């Protein structure tokens, strides 16, 4: 199992690195990243529909997938040429994401009224559809903001930090959990998780953050500018500890969904990992927290300090 996990990681990490490199060469509009996020929105929504297709939940796969794509892609509204919705000066398109989300709420309620036939199923299905759009569409839309939160040149330094920190936490949790795991963390929800694994997640996340932000920051220096100064080690460590905790909770939250519907994995897409959602759970959950931390902590040392 461990060898297979390492093999899959050895394939996926260079693949994502290559996609990020190509996209960075195409400018701040990030068209390849948009295509990647649309792919994640479609297949993430499909997996979630399959997970929740039980009891009285019957979410519509096509409608939910379209809504997730709309909300996720809203992070790019205004980034390609002249569009009626403009990007604010700070590159923050969260308002577009929330507006798209509000529109999908209207659409889903309207379709629920059209599909209604008898009492007993409409609210369950509508609730499932709203949850899928919230979990997949909104969270992906917020994660996309990391591409611009610290300036367009540093987009993949920031996105890379999220992936490195959360996956470093996964490696740390797996390693210490296997070596020293005895006491269960939440036995009814996720029997395989232990307190030792939780400690390993924090160590792996903090170490990953310090190493990534210390050594990768100079690699994202804009052409013709002075070398960027890496963040202080303590701010990187705090960033890693908070994201490590958040990623661990995100993993448990996806376990909650799977356990409640009686399934072990979201799908069998990646043997040893499970489905796409099993791979993305900690990243999705930690994305909004990472956005806040890049605003609150002195991580973007290359940006001028706002006197206000």
Question: Can you describe what's shown?
Answer:
- This protein is mostly helical.
- The chain has 2 domains: 1-28 and 152-301, no CATH class; 30-147, no CATH class.
- The chain is built from 9 helices and 2 strands.
- β1 and β2 (190-194) form a beta hairpin.
- The longest helix is centred in the last third of the chain and has 28 residues, at 233-260.
- The termini are far apart.
Number of domains in the coordinates? 2
Question: Would you identify the regions where 5 or more consecutive residues have pLDDT less than 50?
Answer: none
Total strand segments: 2
What is the mean pLDDT?
Answer: 86
The number of helical segments is 9
Question: What key phrases describe this protein's structure?
Answer:
single chain; 65% helix; mainly alpha; two-stranded antiparallel ribbon
What does this entry show, briefly?
It is built from nine helices and two strands. It has helices at 2-24, 31-52, 61-73, 94-115, 122-144, 155-180, 195-215, 233-260, 276-296; strands spanning 184-186, 190-194. Strands 1-2 form a two-stranded antiparallel sheet.
Task: Describe the protein's topology.
Blueprint: H1 2-24, H2 31-52, H3 61-73, H4 94-115, H5 122-144, H6 155-180, E1 184-186, E2 190-194, H7 195-215, H8 233-260, H9 276-296
Antiparallel strand pairs: 1-2
Helix pairs in contact: 2-3, 2-5, 3-4, 3-5, 4-5, 5-9, 6-7, 6-8, 6-9, 7-8, 8-9
């Amino acid at each position: 199992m461990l060898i297979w996990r390492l093999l899959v990681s050895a394939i996926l990490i260079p693949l994502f690195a290559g996609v990020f490199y190509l996209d960075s060469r195409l400018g701040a509009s990030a068209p390849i990243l948009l295509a990647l996020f649309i792919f994640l929105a479609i297949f993430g929504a499909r997996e979630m529909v399959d997970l929740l297709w039980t009891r009285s939940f019957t979410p519509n796969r096509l409608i939910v997938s379209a809504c997730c794509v709309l909300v996720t892609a809203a992070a790019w509204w205004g980034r390609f040429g002249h569009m009626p919705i403009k990007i604010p000066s700070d590159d923050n398109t969260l308002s577009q994401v929330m507006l798209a989300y509000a529109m999908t709420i209207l659409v889903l309620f309207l379709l629920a009224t059209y599909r209604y036939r008898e009492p007993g199923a409409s609210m369950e299905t509508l609730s499932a559809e709203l949850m899928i759009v919230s979990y997949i569409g909104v969270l992906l839309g917020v994660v996309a903001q990391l591409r611009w939160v610290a300036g367009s040149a540093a987009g993949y330094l920031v996105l890379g930090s999220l992936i490195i920190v959360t996956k470093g936490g996964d490696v740390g949790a797996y390693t210490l959990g296997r070596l020293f795991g005895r006491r269960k963390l939440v036995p009814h929800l996720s029997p395989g998780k232990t307190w030792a694994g939780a400690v390993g997640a924090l160590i792996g996340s903090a170490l990953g953050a310090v190493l990534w932000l210390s050594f990768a920051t100079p690699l994202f220096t804009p052409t013709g500018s002075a070398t960027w100064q890496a963040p202080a080690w303590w701010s990187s460590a705090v960033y890693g500890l908070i994201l490590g905790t958040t990623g661990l909770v995100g993993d448990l939250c996806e376990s909650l969904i799977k356990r409640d519907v009686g399934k072990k994995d979201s799908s069998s897409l990646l043997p040893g990992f499970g489905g796409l959602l099993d791979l993305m759970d900690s990243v999705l959950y930690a994305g909004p927290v990472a956005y806040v931390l890049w605003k609150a902590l002195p991580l973007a040392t290359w940006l001028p300090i706002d006197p206000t």
